């Protein structure tokens, strides 16, 4: 890819998803990562100072989100000296289809050094072989240019670890910020959970809960499946987030069982 593709365009009032915003299952429905990126962008735009951290993001997807012009609205729920709570709403034709809540905090530079060391760091992405997503060949989509480099083989059992890279801009000429890049990749917490299941059972996620203690550094992000409890068609996928500097956050998502043909065909589906 000679130049970065954008996930959305903007006409001054509405956001239009591009082909790189859609998911693998339907070319007219958005990928959860693209939706999360746009909501994170809206919340981050309300940041009071550059050094404030958007430490927690909760995303709720109310229904399948179509590839159609949409509006983004934000509302400051709570304002404080060290905290700010902001809600964002994504709407199609005035119908809200997704929302996010963001919790921002101001840093305390004179705080004591951490008492608990970070967990182990995964091996570097360099030298690892990339894998192809199962749905990529069907149509242009969010996964088309995402690069996946697993440390452990998909469907080999619990504890899957994989590096991912999103080579996109949010809008033409507007690069992804570290926060938006992390939001874009947070949707893959469900996929990493699926990859941890040798039975290759498919699940879809209806929400994402993302927490970080610092901004992601560099282009690459690593997801490690920490736990995947499930029963009665419901699963919770818990993932640790790393970059090349080490652990910086986690993601949890509630997932609902859904048959996925591509999983039975033998290729990973993200």
Written overview of the protein:
- The chain is 13% helix and 38% strand.
- With 270 residues, the protein is mainly beta.
- Helix 1 (32-44) runs antiparallel to helix 2.
- Mean pLDDT is 88; it is low at 264-270.
Shape: globular
Query: Helical proportion?
Result: 10-25%
Q: What would CATH call the architecture?
A: Beta Barrel
CATH class: Mainly Beta
Number of helices: 4
- How many strands, which pairing sense, and closed or not: the largest β-sheet? 12 strands, antiparallel
Question: Residue-averaged pLDDT, rounded?
Answer: 88
Low-confidence stretches: 264-270
CATH homologous superfamily grouping: Acyl-CoA thioesterase, double hotdog domain
Give the SSE order as H and E letters.
EEEHEEEEEEEEHHEEEEEEH
Strand content: 35-45%
Question: What is the oligomer described by this structure?
Answer: single chain
CATH names the topology as Porin
Concise overview:
The protein is mainly beta and 270 residues long.
Chain-wise SSE layout:
Blueprint: E1 5-6, E2 8-10, E3 15-17, H1 32-44, E4 53-61, E5 71-79, E6 83-92, E7 95-105, E8 147-150, E9 161-165, E10 168-171, E11 174-175, H2 178-186, H3 188-195, E12 203-205, E13 207-212, E14 220-227, E15 230-231, E16 234-243, E17 246-257, H4 261-264
Parallel strand pairs: 1-10
Antiparallel strand pairs: 2-3, 4-7, 4-13, 5-6, 6-7, 8-9, 9-14, 10-11, 12-17, 13-17, 14-16, 15-16, 16-17
Helix pairs in contact: 1-2
List keywords for this structure.
single chain, 270 residues, mainly beta, Porin, twelve-stranded antiparallel β-sheet, three-stranded mixed β-sheet, 17 strands, 38% strand, disordered C terminus
């Amino acid at each position: 890819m000679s130049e970065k593709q954008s996930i959305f365009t903007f006409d001054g009032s509405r956001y239009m998803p591009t082909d790189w915003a859609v998911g693998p299952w339907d070319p007219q429905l958005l990928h959860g990562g693209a939706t999360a990126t746009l909501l994170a962008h809206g919340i981050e735009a309300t940041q009071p100072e550059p050094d404030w951290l958007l430490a927690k993001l909760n995303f709720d997807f109310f229904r399948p989100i179509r590839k159609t012009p949409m509006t983004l609205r934000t509302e400051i729920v709570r304002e404080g000296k060290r905290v700010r709570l902001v809600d964002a709403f994504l709407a199609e034709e005035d119908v809200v289809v997704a929302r996010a809540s963001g919790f921002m905090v101001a840093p305390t530079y004179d705080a004591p050094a951490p008492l608990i060391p970070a967990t182990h760091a995964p091996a570097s992405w360099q030298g690892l072989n990339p894998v192809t997503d199962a749905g990529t060949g069907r149509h242009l989509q969010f996964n088309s240019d995402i690069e996946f480099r697993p440390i452990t083989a998909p469907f080999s059992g619990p504890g899957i670890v994989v590096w991912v890279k999103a080579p996109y801009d949010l809008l033409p000429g507007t690069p992804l910020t570290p926060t938006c890049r992390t939001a874009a990749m947070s949707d893959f917490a469900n996929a990493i959970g699926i990859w941890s299941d040798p039975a290759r059972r498919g699940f879809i996620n209806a929400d994402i809960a993302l927490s970080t203690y610092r901004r992601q550094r560099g282009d690459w992000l690593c997801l490690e499946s920490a736990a995947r409890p499930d029963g009665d068609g419901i699963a919770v996928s818990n993932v640790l987030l790393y970059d090349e500097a080490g652990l910086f956050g986690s993601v949890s998502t509630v997932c609902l069982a859904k048959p996925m043909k591509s999983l039975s065909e033998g290729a990973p589906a993200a």
